[in-house]
Structure formats: structure tokens, C-alpha cells
């Protein structure tokens, strides 16, 4: 268990990174399939779809993608604001609350709920998740899209195999695991969506809730341990 939860740096714990990445792939697939090929977090794809919508004079397509892009940027900025303003070590717990709230609400909504309202709300929450938890055991990663992780995994494995740089083995395994978790999340989301419809998102929401709660408890345990050591000294 110690290999999965880093008690010295809980925000970089492997377990939390894998759960959040699985959830990120799960929700991205959910919005892509359910919301007319609009992605909540993969803004590279949204920019391409936005360009295509502009070229085809598709006003609704432009609104959907532009809304997601703007909301994602605002979500990233919000994390910086919270980190600076909140006088607590638990600011990351707060940063996951928006996606938890949005995910919980969406499960109750009808299938006909407008995409241009739903996707930006998800994008905002996922952006905050992405910025608040951005490292796995000291390595930078992203839990809501996977292009960067694919690149880093390929580079690390190449350095390990072809240049015998054994220091890259840990990075190669970490990024490969991240990519696999994201992919599994997307696949499972796509398979469950026809059966559970809007309620499908509750699975990812539950996993994020587990992550947020576990992170809080881990931080609390670490704080209590430090306080005891101070008293003893």
C-alpha cells in the first residue's frame, strides 16, 4: 500500500493519480459520445472541431467547443486563485469539489439537457482536477487527457531500451500505467453509456470522491503525526 500512497507527498500518490486518470478518460469519453463529439478536457480536439464548425458555418458547434475551451481556461485560473487565497493545506480537496458537484447533478438530468450548458461545467471541474493533481511520484502528468503521457511514455521507454538509461524505467512504467488507466476509463465509459445514459458519469464521480476523501484523510494523518513528533521533541 505504501507504494500506492505517498504519505510524504500525498498529492503525488500513485493511487490517486491512477484513479483520477481513469475518471478523466471516463468523463472525456462520456462527453464525446453523449455531447456531439465535444470533449470536456482534450482541448486540442475541441480546437480542431471548432475550426471545422467555423468552416461549415455550424453556429451550435462553435458555441459548444468555445464554451468548453473558455470554461477549461477559467478552471485552471481558479486553481491558482484558490492556492493563493486559501490558508490551508487542504486546498486540493476544495479543487475537486466542482467536478464532484457537477458529476452528481448531471446524473439526474434528462438526456435532452443542452450540451452547451453541460460540457462547460464539466470542463471547468476537470480543469481544476488537472491543475490540482499534476504529479505522480515527482513526475508531471495530466489526469484528464493523455497525449502528453503517451509521448513521455514513448520517450522514457526508448531511453531505457535503446540507451540503457535505467533511471528512466520508473518514469516509463508510471506513464504507461497512466495511459492504460485513461484508455480503460474511456472504453468502460463507452460500453456503459448505452445502458445507464446520464447516470454513467456517477461511476467516475464516485472514484473522484474516493480520491478526494482518501487524500484528505492521508493529509490529516500526516498532520497528526507531525504534531505528535513536535510535542515529543
From TrEMBL:
Q: Does the keyword Transmembrane apply?
A: yes
InterPro entries named in the record:
DUF1275
Task: Tell me where the transmembrane regions lie.
Answer: 15-33, 66-83, 90-110, 116-133, 172-194, 200-218
Pfam families documented for this protein: DUF1275
Q: Which residues form the signal peptide?
A: none
Q: Keywords in UniProt for this one?
A: Membrane, Transmembrane, Transmembrane helix
| Official protein name in the record | DUF1275 domain-containing protein
According to its UniProt entry, this protein's organism is Limosilactobacillus albertensis
